[in-house]
């Protein structure tokens, strides 16, 4: 059995992320989704709590008929020491065999620790981009809803996450 | 839908814990298992990492034919401030409706925050007791294997967790 | 009896802040002044220690004939988790009924926690603005003294706070 | 003007503490009461939040007709480094001239930093002792009410602090 | 070239420690002395600062004609996560090849990380024992001076460390 | 005997730093080199671990025939409270008499604590500048090797530090 580990902040989880999950599940038996910066929430860069992100991802995966019993979620708070970060992840997470990432720092740290790292194919980062999506939400531009799985936009509305982001930004 | 939250340290997960999980799943639709003191490992009181605990619990639940898609795992590091602990849990965890606990401090903190707390029936704490089980492991007394689900004892052997505990204790 | 809570960093306390305090004291019986980022000092953004800020505010209030026995000061270090910040404040502070703030994040966090938040009337933020005042101090432009209560400018001179700010900025 | 600094945990504030405050106010012009271990609450050793302790002390001083405008409260979280603790206190507190303490570590640390330390006369520590008082509360022995100022016992009842302590201890 | 790493708290550095250093220097080319719990000082268990410990060890090694250019000192604060501690040490320290320790936890953690660990011969832990030495100092029993290198007892007297320990203990 | 303390981040140690060390050793008997932000590594601003920095500096000093037995290295993690930073350094470091620095904040903090601070002569900060050197490394411009001691460039190549910096930057 082979397990992949996919780290991200997922603020929010968008269609590019979903594509990576699907691509990875064709290559591994089980997938650990690491929700990074888990202590963060209610900021312009990190509006959603770790729990909210876990919930929106689960719903999106369910909506794509992905078997949830193959998925692990591991929220991980920042540790502020890159030299030990890999081992921090290792201690909070079930065992894993391979890292899925295109992030240069993440790739470097896991490679220095001797892990196999695979790069998923690039998605279009001009639009499938959490920063861009948050900006659209703040500007009250509904186009953001097309960039995330339907379950994610429904969930964000349900918890009034769009309103939260706008009020933190000083609008409304 | 009603979600329960069951916090513990699970060092290790034993048959008493399993009984609580089963009892709870008859009363809620989904269950969040909070793995507390997630930053701890390799000590006499907390020998296993959060990831190892997550893995041993999953295997035990699978072995009991519990549907894993109804279960959430949330490892939570200590925050050392009881007054904000409930809100820390809340932010790391998907939404929950009711707390399952017999721990006086946990019960008190969630009640002060306005949550419903239900006490599962007591199991025999003289033997289904993680401290007692760890002591048996240190003393190399195989009786501990009868106090945990078969998958847990298999897993602990697989990761040589019994050996780890004995070597930390200064034996072997 | 009704208590208000007014959070700020007060680097330094200026006439706009004083106006808010006076306005609030006509609406509440007692006022808690929360000195945020209490661990910070000796930086361009946060030149004064929490203790110095407490002292300059007290003197300013005394100079305005405000009854000090109605005022509480609560220095609060940053906790870096917005999701628990309100509860952190709650635990360091005497009980309070209403929040006085125009800061979008502060307003949002207290509202999500179920608190009443009132917005004091806006003062002229172009000049009653701590960032602007610190810049004037660094540039050795005496105009800053007109933007703070007389007791505050006297206190800053007394502790040579203006000189400190200039030397941290690399001048003098 | 001469300011004293009196550090303690005040879990709870008792008649011995009150006696020290009164004795000190005959020797200094203003008094800073440092509420230590401010981050702690809801434990057997530290049942009350910093805010609750601030409130119970204020009421006790008011009840003794002490002028509150001469008193400063400074809640200070633990910093876990004795070598910098004095400077931590110094930065959170208005300026002070003399320390009031009989605690050997506190006395030593302030003396090493060059401060004057004065020892107030000993009170009867067999009964005016916070540990003893907490034990009486847990045992539901009303005698504890005679060991604290009347305002403190009233306040503890008002916030159901006695009930909290008993439930944390596993009683009730 | 082969480098050893010798971790300890050295509160204080005694003749048993010195014997380990000498034994090790016959087996490695260079030696890194890790001063653990570096943030601690002024307590009964950890009376000396990391800097004081570095200084007392250097003087003792000089007094034994050990070439200081072969020795590295690395003060390391506690990180409270055993699972990452080895990597924390690795990041604060020059590269090392072998661990010198008889401490079960230290041995276990470095072995799990794939390091070679060698156990130096046991010294008489009944008397060459920092806890015992601190107790003698507190009891004002001069016998402690025979258990540490002459330079260490001279240094402790020079900084009045014996007096500090007694005053923290509540004597003197 | 007179000891100097020279704090820096040394990311990496360059010829300007070496010049300061030489200049200082003509004025003091021993020199403590404080390696600041010791917890940082693997970022664009702080690519090297504290241990790597200690090792590159030692080799550079050896290469300049500086007597290593006169040099102390003290890695110090950030403490995020300027008001106690000097005392943090003091507790991690052997005793020192004078600070060598041209950094405005460092100079200010040590002066406020009553220390003598001396400014070494300025070197040409346009080229002897760690930020500039890191940029050259990222751009794969070999000119950086002329700006650091030969031992430092050899060491950085040995640990593939140039490659690390480029991969963190997203190149290669």
Automatic annotation (TrEMBL), chains A, B, C, D, E, F:
- Top-level EC class: transferase
- Tell me, in one coarse class, where this protein mainly resides: cytoplasm
Q: Biological process (GO) annotations?
A: NAD+ biosynthetic process
Superkingdom of this protein's organism: Archaea
- Give the UniProt entry's GO cellular component terms: cytoplasm
Alphabetized, the UniProt keywords read: ATP-binding, Cytoplasm, NAD, Nucleotide-binding, Nucleotidyltransferase, Pyridine nucleotide biosynthesis, Transferase
Where it sits in the cell: the answer is: Cytoplasm
The entry sums up its family as follows:
Belongs to the archaeal NMN adenylyltransferase family.
Record-given protein name: Nicotinamide-nucleotide adenylyltransferase
> What organism is listed for this UniProt entry?
Stygiolobus azoricus
């Amino acid at each position: 059995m082979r397990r992949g580990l996919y780290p991200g902040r997922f603020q929010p989880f968008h269609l590019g992320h979903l594509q990576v999950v699907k691509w990875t599940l064709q290559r591994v038996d089980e997938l650990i989704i690491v929700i990074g910066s888990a202590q963060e929430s209610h900021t312009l860069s990190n509006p959603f709590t770790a729990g909210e992100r876990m919930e929106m991802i689960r719903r999106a995966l369910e909506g794509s008929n992905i078997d949830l019993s193959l998925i692990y979620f591991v929220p991980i708070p920042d540790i502020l020491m890159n030299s030990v970060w890999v081992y921090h992840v290792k201690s909070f997470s079930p065992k894993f065999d391979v890292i899925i990432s295109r992030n240069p720092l993440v790739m470097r740290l896991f490679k220095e620790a001797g892990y196999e790292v695979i790069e998923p194919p690039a998605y279009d980062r001009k639009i499938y981009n959490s920063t861009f999506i948050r900006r659209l939400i703040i500007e009250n531009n509904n186009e953001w809803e097309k960039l995330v799985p339907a379950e994610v936009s429904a969930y964000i509305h349900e918890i009034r996450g769009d309103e939260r982001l706008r009020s933190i930004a000083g609008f409304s």
